[in-house]
Predict the 3D structure of the following.
Amino acid sequence: MAIYDPTNPLHVEQARRYLERLLQGDEPFEIKREEKKRTSLQNRFIHAAIGLLAIHLGLKLDYVKDEYFKKECNPDIFVRRQYDPNVKREVEVVRSSASLTVDEMSTAIDRFLRWCVQEFDFYIPDGDEYRFLKQMEVEVARHKQWLYGKESR
């Protein structure tokens, strides 16, 4: 399926022609709005921020990401309950950050940064201070042997 930019007149015309062809057919079709996913800069930033908190607390990065960033700070964005027919009960499922929209990721990052200050008096530069991102990434890379491991804590 092609993706069309509604601000591009050529794409608008192509989309109209395509829709007309679909309407002339006899098979069902779907029209779907493409949502903007989180940006790579947001992804880099939150990964570095989570890494800095993990270093500060002496915990593994995956533990901080799952338990603090997703479950503690942003359960309404990440945590879902769904019925598992295999165990015949509802189970908790944690959503991947890869599926977040730009707005959801912005909200999640803002909450996490505020939470770090409130819970641990640990300041991480906010989203408007991305110039510190490279420094954050260097610090996380320097500690990667302690951040990534087989154990969760």
